[in-house]
UniProtKB/TrEMBL annotation:
<feature type="signal peptide">
    <location>
        <begin position="1"/>
        <end position="22"/>
    </location>
</feature>
<keyword id="KW-0732">Signal</keyword>
<protein>
    <submittedName>
        <fullName>Uncharacterized protein</fullName>
    </submittedName>
</protein>
């Protein structure tokens, strides 16, 4: 099933190239992401998955004059930071070069109130995120964040006055502009712009065989532009070669160019998306994901794809720009695995003195949980982290007996955020160390026009799982693995597995399967799999509904 509304499909309907070495262009989004979403007006009450932006901030940035200034400042800073790339000022300037959308998102804007005698201290933490989104597929290829915390002190009687409200909004405005410049400055040296050339070395049916693979920087799902103006998409990549399909008619090119701003080539890794983030006190789901990814790093055996879903509801381009939509398969067809993150309510209380400390102290307790789930409901792996921080007692414990002791906080003005960052990055590292995927290769034992039989692979296969059927062909003295069918497991036991053939991957042809073809997929190692954990039916239905959004 094709879905279009969940991903940004911003491909200009012109595929002809003026030159084979076209540079990239960056288009600044027309709106600040999250400003068109609900805000939190009650600072004392929370509900599950509540807004992470308070209404005072939204009102501060919503003035037409302020919005215009922010847009101008953002464009100016982008031009200064990315001087080697082309910043597109209007839709009419967009041409056929690879296009990336730059957008600012407010992922946290909060008000924390602390009463001190006759005065009130108002802490205003603000976190912005800068994203670069590949316009051809909606994937976020780069993101970074910057945070700033300001404090203002007012008389207790003036807390709800118009003057205090105006002061809060002015503080947010100033902080927002400073963070915008800071984000563009720190992002410039971190971007990894690549230009990789590859050549066609053979063809089988509709498949184009390229002389570069993973070792040469060409990965699965990469889109390459040909010297004659045509395009191809990589559907399978090995260290030595890649297999691609044409995206345009009458493929004439024999040399192709990849331009990319990705941090790494993760085309060989299985994609495990974060589809569910449960919060209870207005924490930003986007920020939670970023903290988890900080600990996961690029060294994990899987990759967590990020798609800029929010861009669909913003005014990215004018209506007069012709756009085409590239079809996408539902995420559950990419992988049967997903990640769920849960933040328990933050607990802040006074603890009386005892054996280890004489005076009473302020204690803060935070607990987070991460789970990797299979669509069948099985919990593949889970880990939790709990931090208990006090003035004179610090301790951290998590699954697998890992422990961190918090000796000193870098930002005492925003203790909760720092503890949250510590806990989630710890969970990410735990997943990196303990969840290991490997490639499973099974030979087809028997086949029919509709089904194939393969050996049982134990818990690596499950009913409903999506797999691919490959065939090996000799092309220019090279044994090339070609993906010929998408299939779904319909029966699975300890002796054998039956898979239904769903879709031929050879354009314009239906190639019959045969014994000797192979099924290949990635699966977590047996040591990573939890033995009997299964989520209940209600949670499973919620998970499936999130995948279909």
């Amino acid at each position: 099933m094709h879905i279009q509304k969940k991903f940004l499909c911003l491909v200009i309907a012109l595929y002809s190239l003026k030159t084979a070495h076209a540079e990239i262009q960056i288009f600044p989004a027309r709106e600040i992401i999250s400003m068109n979403q609900a805000c939190r007006s009650n600072l004392k009450e929370y509900k599950m998955n509540d807004a992470s932006v308070v209404c005072d901030f939204k009102q501060a940035i919503s003035f037409d004059e302020t919005q215009k200034k922010v847009e101008e400042v953002f464009r100016t800073y982008l031009k200064q930071a990315f001087i080697q790339h082309r910043i597109v000022d209007s839709e009419n300037e967009i041409d056929n070069a690879p296009t990336y959308v730059a957008d600012l998102e407010v992922i946290r804007a909060d008000e924390l109130i602390s009463r001190k005698n006759k005065e009130v201290e108002i802490t205003l933490p603000l976190t912005l995120s800068l994203k670069l989104t590949d316009a051809s597929n909606g994937e976020v290829v780069y993101r970074n964040r910057a945070a700033q915390t300001n404090k203002i002190v007012v008389d207790a009687e003036a807390l709800n006055s118009l003057e205090t409200k105006k002061l809060i909004q002015q503080t947010f405005q100033t902080s927002f502009l400073k963070l915008t410049k800071s984000l563009t400055d720190i992002s410039r040296p971190q971007l990894n712009y690549q230009k990789i050339e590859t050549s066609k070395i053979g063809q089988w049916k509709s498949f184009v065989i390229l002389d570069r693979g993973l070792e040469g920087g060409i990965g699965t799902e990469d889109e390459l532009r040909g010297s004659q103006g045509d395009m191809i998409r990589v559907v399978h990549s090995t260290p030595q070669y890649a297999v691609a399909i044409p995206l345009t008619r009458d493929l004439k090119s024999t040399s192709f160019l990849k331009t990319s701003m990705k941090k790494e080539n993760s085309g060989h890794k299985i994609k495990v998306p974060i589809v569910d983030v449960l919060t209870y006190q207005g924490e930003s789901a986007d920020l939670v994901e970023q903290y988890f990814n900080d600990g996961l790093t690029d060294q994990a055996s899987f990759t967590v794809p990020k798609y800029n879903k929010q861009l669909n509801s913003t005014r990215l381009v004018a209506k007069n720009v012709s756009l085409v939509s590239k079809p996408y398969t539902q995420m559950d067809e990419f992988t049967p695995y997903s990640i769920r993150l849960t933040l328990m309510p933050f607990n802040d209380y006074e603890q009386e003195g005892g054996m280890f400390f004489k005076k009473s102290q302020r204690v803060m307790h935070l607990e987070v949980l991460a789970e990797m789930l299979h669509h069948s409901g099985q919990v593949i792996y889970s880990s939790n982290a709990a931090i208990k921080y006090g003035n004179s007692m610090n301790s951290h414990h998590s699954a697998h007996r890992n422990e961190i002791r918090v000796v000193k906080l870098n930002n005492s003005d925003d203790v909760k955020d720092e503890l949250l960052q510590l806990a989630l990055s710890k969970l990410g590292k735990d997943f990196k160390d303990h969840v290991n995927f490997k490639e499973i290769d099974l030979a087809v034992l028997a086949s029919s026009p509709r089904n194939i039989m393969i050996p049982s692979a134990g818990r690596h296969l499950a009913k409903g799982m999506k797999i691919k059927v490959f065939r090996t062909e000799k092309i220019n003295d090279l044994d090339v693995m070609l993906p010929i069918w998408n299939a779904t497991v319909v029966e699975h036991n300890s002796q054998f597995t039956i898979a239904r053939l769903d879709q031929s991957l050879v354009l314009g042809e239906v190639i019959p399967t045969r014994p000797g073809d192979h099924v290949r997929f990635q699966s977590p190692l047996r040591d990573s799999i939890s033995s009997v954990q299964v989520i209940d039916k209600a949670q499973l239905n919620r998970l499936k509904s999130l995948f279909k959004q």
